[in-house]
Design goal:
2 domains; 24 helices; four-stranded mixed sheet; Growth Hormone, Chain: A; 4 strands; mainly alpha; about 550 residues
Length: about 550
C-alpha cells in the first residue's frame, strides 16, 4: 500500500536496512573524502600548479578550480540520474564511485607546473571535471536508495546518515592532511617533486576506492525500483518527464529556490570559506591550527545531522530547515567579526589604529574574479588591491584622478604601486616583488602582524562561534535528502532531485570561496564576501514558508 513499508512483503529485498545505510554512508564518506582533499589543499595546489601566477591570482585560480569541479556536478546529475531512473540505482552507484576514486588517485600522480609546464594545470582541470561529474551522480542515488528501503516514519533518520557521511569524509581528509603535513614538515609537504607530501592524501584514495566498490557490490537493487521496472512503469524519457512537464519542473524550481541555494551557500561558507579563506588567508592563522580547529568542529557537528533529521520525522521537514537558514542569517556577520577578534586581535587593533587606503582611478580597477587563471590583472590598482588581499589587510577605497598611478596609504606612509600592463612577465613579477616589499615594511612599521600570534588565539571562542555556524548548516542539511526524495515522483526521482541539489550545492556552494574572495579583493572589506551566502540564504528563507510543501509522511512508491 502507498506510504507503508513494503520491504517485508517483497522477495526482492535481500539487503537489510542497516546494511543499506552503512554501505551507502561509508561509500559516500569515501567519495566526500576524495572531494574534500582537493578543497583542503587549494593553497598547495595553487603553489604547485599555478606557479606562473602571483600568489593572489594563484589562489583565486585554485579556488576557482575547486569550484569548477562543482560546476560539472549538474552534468553528472543528468547523466547518472537517467541511468538511475532507467537502469537502476546500484549501477549508477558503481560507476560514480569508480570515476571519483580514479580521478583522485590521478591527481596524486600528476606532474606539477615545475615538472611539465602548462600541461600540468590542464590535466588537473580534467581530473576535477571527472570528480565533479562523478559526485553529481552519487548523492541522489545514495539518498534515494536508503529512503526507498526505510519505513516512512523513520525516513529522515535513515537518510540522515548519508548527510552525516560528509562530516567523517571531511574529518578523514583533514586528518590525513594534518598528519602528513606534520610528519613531513611544511617544505616537504608543499614541494613540487614526486615525493612531495601533498600527493599522499590523493594516493590513499586507491585503498578507499577498493573498499567503496566492495561495499556497493554487497547491495541489491532498491525494492521500489524493482517493482516499478517489473511493472514496466519506469521512466522511458526521464528528461522530458522531469523538465518538460510543468508540474514536475515546478517542483525542481521550488527545490532549487527554497532549499538548495541556501544549503550550498551556507554549508560551504561554514566548512570551507571560514577556515580556508577567512582564518588562514585573512587572519593569518597557521594552517595546522586552522585545520585542527575545523576537524574538531566537523567531528562535533556530525551527530547534529542525525538529530535534526530525527526531529524532522516528528515535527516536519520545512521548519527545521527554515530554522537553519534563519540562524545563519543572524549569525554570519557578528560571528565573523567575533572570529577576527579571537583569531588575530593584533591585526584588528592595527586596522583600527592605522587604517589602510587605496587611492586609485576606479576605471583602472578590475573585479578580480577569474576561475580559469588566465586573467591578467596588471593595472596599478589591481596590483595594489591584490597585494593587500594577499596580505589579509582590509582597506578603504579613495578616488584618484583619471589615469593616476594607484598608491597605498598606510597611515601617513605612502606606498606607490606600479603600472604593469606593458611589462613582460619577468618585469611584472619583479615590480610586484618591489611593491610587496615596500608594503610589507609599511605594514610592519604600523603594527600589522605577519601572522596570528598562537598565544593570543582564543581557540575555545573560535570553536564556539564555528559550532553556531555548524548548527545552522546541519539543521538545513540534515532533512534535505528525505525532503527531496519525498518531493518527487518515483519514476523521475533520481533525475529530478539530483539536478536542483547539484545546481545549489555545485554552482552556488562550490563558488563560495572564489566569489567571496573576489568580492573582498574588490571592496577591501574582509567581511564583504559574506553578502554572497547571505543573499542566497535570504532568498530561500523568504520563499520556503510559502512555496515548499511539507513532505513528511508522504508515500514515495508512487
Amino acid at each position: 500500500m502507498a506510504g507503508q513499508d513494503t520491504s517485508a512483503d517483497t522477495p526482492h529485498v535481500v539487503t537489510p536496512l542497516l546494511t543499506v545505510i552503512v554501505a551507502s554512508a561509508l561509500s559516500t564518506t569515501f567519495e566526500w573524502y576524495d572531494f574534500f582533499v582537493f578543497g583542503t589543499l587549494a593553497p598547495v595546489i595553487a603553489k604547485n600548479f599555478f606557479t606562473a601566477l602571483d600568489p593572489t591570482a594563484g589562489l583565486l585560480a585554485a579556488l576557482g578550480l575547486f569550484g569548477a569541479g562543482f560546476f560539472f556536478r549538474p552534468l553528472g546529475a543528468l547523466i547518472f540520474g537517467r541511468v538511475g531512473d532507467q537502469v537502476g540505482r546500484k549501477g549508477a552507484f558503481l560507476i560514480t564511485v569508480t570515476m571519483m576514486g580514479a580521478a583522485t588517485v590521478g591527481i596524486g600522480l600528476l606532474p606539477t607546473y615545475a615538472q611539465a609546464g602548462p600541461i600540468a594545470p590542464i590535466l588537473l582541470i580534467l581530473m576535477r571535471i571527472i570528480q565533479g561529474t562523478a559526485l553529481g551522480g552519487q548523492y541522489g542515488g545514495a539518498a534515494i536508495y536508503v529512503a526507498e528501503h526505510a519505513r516512512p516514519n523513520h525516513r529522515g533518520l535513515a537518510t540522515s546518515f548519508v548527510q552525516a557521511a560528509a562530516a567523517p569524509g571531511l574529518v578523514i581528509a583533514l586528518t590525513v592532511v594534518f598528519l602528513t603535513r606534520t610528519a613531513m614538515g611544511e617544505p616537504g609537504f608543499t614541494a613540487s617533486g614526486w615525493m612531495a607530501g601533498w600527493r599522499i592524501p590523493f594516493l590513499l584514495s586507491a585503498g578507499l576506492l577498493a573498499i567503496s566498490i566492495w561495499m556497493r557490490m554487497k547491495l541489491t537493487e532498491s525494492p521500489s525500483f524493482v517493482a516499478l521496472k517489473e511493472a514496466d512503469n519506469h521512466a522511458k524519457a526521464p528528461y522530458a518527464e522531469a523538465f518538460g512537464n510543468w508540474p514536475n519542473l515546478k517542483l525542481v524550481l521550488i527545490a532549487l529556490v527554497t532549499m538548495m541555494s541556501a544549503q550550498g551557500a551556507i554549508w560551504y561558507t561554514v566548512f570551507f570559506y571560514t577556515e580556508q579563506v577567512f582564518l588562514e588567508r585573512f587572519m593569518k592563522v597557521d594552517p595546522v591550527t586552522g585545520t585542527g580547529l575545523l576537524m574538531a568542529v566537523t567531528a562535533a557537528s556530525a551527530p547534529l545531522y542525525v538529530l535534526f533529521a530525527w526531529i524532522s520525522d516528528r515535527v516536519g521537514r520545512k521548519w527545521v530547515m527554515w530554522f537553519g537558514m534563519c540562524l545563519a542569517l543572524a549569525a554570519f556577520f557578528p560571528g565573523f567579526h567575533g572570529l577576527a577578534r579571537m583569531a588575530n586581535p593584533a591585526l584588528e587593533a592595527a586596522q583600527t589604529r592605522t587604517p589602510v587606503v587605496v587611492v586609485a582611478d576606479p576605471a583602472r580597477c578590475s573585479l578580480q574574479f577569474d576561475i580559469t587563471g588566465k586573467g591578467k590583472f596588471a593595472t596599478s590598482c589591481d596590483i595594489a588591491k591584490s597585494l593587500l588581499a594577499n596580505a589579509g589587510v582590509s582597506y578603504a577605497n579613495q578616488t584618484a584622478p583619471a589615469g593616476a598611478l594607484a598608491v597605498i596609504r598606510v597611515g601617513g606612509v605612502v606606498v606607490p604601486s606600479v603600472e604593469g600592463g606593458g611589462l613582460s612577465a619577468p618585469a611584472l613579477k619583479a615590480a610586484n616583488t618591489q611593491v610587496k616589499g615596500a608594503l610589507a615594511h609599511a605594514l610592519s612599521s604600523a603594527g600589522y602582524p605577519a601572522s596570528a600570534d598562537p598565544a593570543r588565539i582564543n581557540l575555545p571562542g573560535l570553536f564556539g562561534v564555528m559550532m553556531i555556524f555548524a548548527v545552522a548548516a546541519t539543521a538545513l542539511f540534515g532533512p534535505i535528502a528525505t525532503t527531496l526524495v519525498e518531493l518527487f515522483p518515483m519514476r523521475i526521482r533520481y533525475t529530478a532531485m539530483s539536478l536542483p541539489y547539484h545546481v545549489g550545492t555545485g554552482w552556488v556552494g562550490g563558488f563560495v570561496p572564489v566569489t567571496a574572495f573576489a568580492i573582498v579583493t574588490a571592496t577591501g572589506n574582509i567581511y564583504a564576501g559574506l553578502w554572497y551566502p547571505i543573499v542566497f540564504a535570504a532568498i530561500s528563507a523568504i520563499t520556503l514558508p510559502f512555496l515548499l510543501p511539507e513532505t513528511r509522511g508522504r508515500a514515495i512508491d508512487v
